[in-house]
Write a structure and sequence with these properties.
Order of helices and strands: HHH
Strand content: under 5%
Distance between the termini: 76 Å
Shape: elongated
Structural class: mainly alpha
């Protein structure tokens, strides 16, 4: 690919040239010809915002996966405790339902 930015005519406004220049830079970045640290400051900020947002999503997913893994590890290694806790929870639920039906609570 040609590494030289396209040149515009003398009658073009600067904003149009800037957009083409940015588009060219982004295409080079997406093609792997330049790295994030080589982007102009304004384009780097856009890239960094997306990068950090992606990191937060990945971090949240990893934390959830770790919590679920911890729970299932506990269930696998403590089946009698899990069954006893489940039975207590069901009994407490049944008691609350009975109170609601009888008008108490």
């Amino acid at each position: 690919m040609n590494a030289k930015a396209p040149q515009g005519g003398a009658s073009e406004n600067l904003a149009g040239r800037r957009v083409r220049q940015d588009k060219f830079t982004v295409e080079r970045f997406l093609n792997g010809e330049i790295h994030a640290h080589e982007l102009p400051w304004d384009l780097w900020r856009v890239w960094a915002d997306g990068f950090h947002a992606g990191c937060e999503r990945v971090k949240a997913r990893a934390e959830r996966a770790n919590r679920e893994a911890d729970y299932w590890y506990y269930v696998a290694n403590n089946p009698e405790k899990v069954h006893a806790e489940h039975a207590r929870t069901l009994k407490a639920f049944d008691v609350a339902q009975a109170r609601m039906k009888s008008g108490g609570a």
